[in-house]
Design a protein that fits this description.
Elements: H1 15-21, H2 28-35, E1 42-44, E2 49-51, E3 60-65, E4 68-73, E5 79-85, E6 90-91, E7 104-107, E8 111-116, H3 118-127, H4 129-155, H5 158-162
Antiparallel strand pairs: 1-8, 2-7, 3-6, 3-8, 4-5, 4-7
Helix pairs in contact: 3-4
């Protein structure tokens, strides 16, 4: 997908819309559908878990304000940060496929976020196959970065990782 210059539209104050507009010129109907994912908005403070590792999966997280981390906790209590989440990130939209969540999401600053239920996401995707293809592309892109990071951590020397 090629980048398009961002348009100034009424939805541009929404981080997800702004993020998607970097890659795709959204129609007014698509922007309205994306706003529908924000029907419930919650707030949390630093160190608050938005999702819990090992808990039932099914709800995706749409971050509006603040920063969070996706992490896994090892049996001995150490944790591994998988990635940082910033406004506009739509974390784990395919979460309803798995039975249990294999990570937690924890706020590291005050955050505003929306839980997105599978039926809401499926309604959005069935109403806009173009957005569905784009979310699929975003998931593939995230997988690409995750694999690159895995190779860097697993096989590169410290000097190579820093470079």
């Amino acid at each position: 997908m090629t980048a398009h210059p961002p348009r100034k539209t009424p939805g541009s104050d929404r981080p997800l819309v702004r993020k998607l507009q970097q890659f795709l010129a959204l129609t007014a109907a698509e922007e309205a559908a994306l706003r529908g994912l924000e029907s419930v908005v919650r707030q949390a403070g630093p160190r608050h878990e938005l999702t819990t590792e090992g808990g039932a999966s099914g709800t995706a997280i749409l971050l509006h304000k603040g920063w969070a981390v996706r992490q896994r906790t090892l049996r001995d209590g150490r944790r591994q940060v998988i990635d940082f989440l910033v406004p506009g990130d739509f974390c784990d939209p395919s979460s309803f496929v798995a039975g249990r969540r294999d990570f937690s999401i924890t706020a590291i600053t005050p955050v505003t976020w929306s839980p997105v239920q599978p039926e809401d996401l499926l309604r959005l995707l069935s109403g806009s196959p173009r957005l569905g293809a784009f979310f699929w592309w975003l998931e593939a892109r995230e997988g690409f970065f995750l694999r690159a990071h895995l190779v860097a951590v697993g096989r590169m020397r410290a000097e190579e990782r820093i470079a």
